[in-house]
Amino acid sequence: MPRIQLLPSLVITKIAAGEVIERPASVVKELLENSVDAGATRIDVDIEQGGAELIRVVDNGCGILPEDLPLAFASHATSKLATAEDLFHIGTLGFRGEALASIGGIARVTLQARPHDQDSGAEITCEGGKLSSARDWNGAPGTRIEVRHLFYNTPVRRKFLRSPGTEMGHISEIFTRLALAKPNLHLTLRHNGKDVYEVPGSAGLLDRIGLFFGPEVRDKLYPVERCQGPAMLSGFIADPACERGNAKMQYLFLNGRWIRDRSLGHALQEAYRGLLMTGRFATAFLFLDLPPDQVDVNVHPTKAEVRFRDGHALYSFVFGCVRERLREEKLTARLFPTSTLASPQVQEPKSNGPNWFQARPEEASSPLFSDAGLPPVTFLPSPGVKNQGSGIRSQESEVGSQRSEVRDQVAGNQESHYQPWVYSPPQAGVKAIQLYDAYLVLETPEGMLVIDQHALHERILFEQLKRRIREGTLEIQRLLVPEPVELSAEQAARSLEQRDALAQLGWGVEDFGGGTVLLTSYPAILGKRSPVEAFKGVVDFLSAKDRLPTREQLFSDLLSLMACHAAVRAGDPLTQEEIAALVALREMADDTHHCPHGRPTSLLFSKHDLDRQFRRT
């Protein structure tokens, strides 16, 4: 029978590192938090190869005494706690005393520090948990730490690292969170010797949001500032038009610490109910300040999850503040009949504990392609240019409009690049009209058919895209002048990582540095639709995937997204010729009873049902 025994200290360190250090971004997070806790006003971060080869963090904080350097790598050694009671009044970002010990166990680390009141400092190295003796060091006051060859002694962990671009995207996200949380901090980030971000200490929160996410987000924000009891909520919420395909643009901070909380995220989404379509997410940058004794941050080693003393009251507080602020902007909400689209009603959560806020009540796809691979795409010529918005695009881009395609086919115009199907005009006697610029009403032998024009066109374009990619005839419009697209660093890294897959769908993407990519081409099927907005929708989809799907699923989902962006919208008036063409195309596509996202494209009201409603039977 195996005997119980104490594990060696090196094994304990590696086990602890598995909880604290998941990837290079985890190292950057821990080191940045240490610098902030040391009172630094400037922090410089240098990264090489996505952090796998080098992570260097230099700050001008208080430094470390030479005699304390060996203790910095000891497990559960910290200057931020003294007694167990301090755990209930945590005012620092770090406090567990695990980070440096965990990092030193799986990397080659050099720590150099000098207090401001000392003429010289000292340095020490830790390689796989083995410490050297301290040596004199004559650097500038503050702390300088280098982490090299991360996971060098745990090759299995190192093998699971993603590409340098992807890992750098995660590091940039950590950097972004800290820059937003600490508006007075001067921060710089470099990767492989190139500047990624420089955030001056004079830049306010709104300036920082504009730096990381671009003016299109910054200019659509509404300030929020509310106090209730001991709680204060501040920051910005975005106009519903700034909605995204995932919740990654919802930044929530508690007492200067970025946190992840499902309940508060749900409160934010509920506050936007009726203003966002299903599956879309609000954008927000919210800062919550609470007394330290009202929250427990000692839940998980990463400190990203917290536990509130009265989470129900906090839910109501956040929901009420955001909802009230949106109402002040007089935004028009979209209401749905509860009899047809039953949505869960917002209810104030009941609290069994003290209401210390005095909270107020408020209202599967089939395989798409064979394993043989995809054929090459066809690029349209670019004989001329036309200024369109902020970019310059070929005049051919407008020829590819699907609206024009429908009209050209009916009118017999043979100049259009798009001739997907040849068909006969609708049969004589077929009657179809458009209602509310969104629905087509058609008389059929079975009864009255009501068609959602967007859903139907989306299905038709989806089938067309599939066919063209299989046949190698997908036409791509090149941009004569590449158009820059501002993304978050994580989104840029994900889009560059999937560059080959995007290229096969017509999207040409190049790296421009930081969170900016260059759009060099797009599927001509988009026509007059904005390729930049369509591309951002594709990037939102990629960013929402924690784990990328299979190749077939990825292409199927991306094609449905592209078809959605290119299809006619609800609110687009159609001519009689366009209505006739769309009805005719309906007979040519497969599975037209549902769009690629699963929504019905049409509803049938049989003549028998109509007769019954009017009591003719």
Give an account of the 3D structure:
The protein is α+β, with helices and mostly antiparallel strands and 617 residues long. The chain contains 19 helices and 26 strands. Strands 1, 2, 3, 4, 5, 6, 7, 8 and 9 form a nine-stranded mixed sheet that branches. It has a five-stranded mixed sheet with strand order 10-11-14-12-13, sandwiched between helices. It is elongated and about 95 Å long. It starts with 8 loop residues before the first helix and ends with a helix. Mean pLDDT is 78; it is low at 332-377 and 381-429.
Beta fraction: 15-25%
The total of beta strands comes to 26
Low-confidence stretches: 332-377, 381-429
Terminal CA distance: 83 Å
Summed up, the helix count is 19
The helix/strand class is alpha+beta
Question: Which quaternary structure do these chains form?
Answer: single chain
What is the architecture of the largest domain at the second tier of CATH?
A: 2-Layer Sandwich
Average pLDDT for all residues: 78
Q: Please outline the major beta sheet.
A: 9 strands, mixed
What's the CATH C level of the largest domain?
Alpha Beta
Number of domains: 3
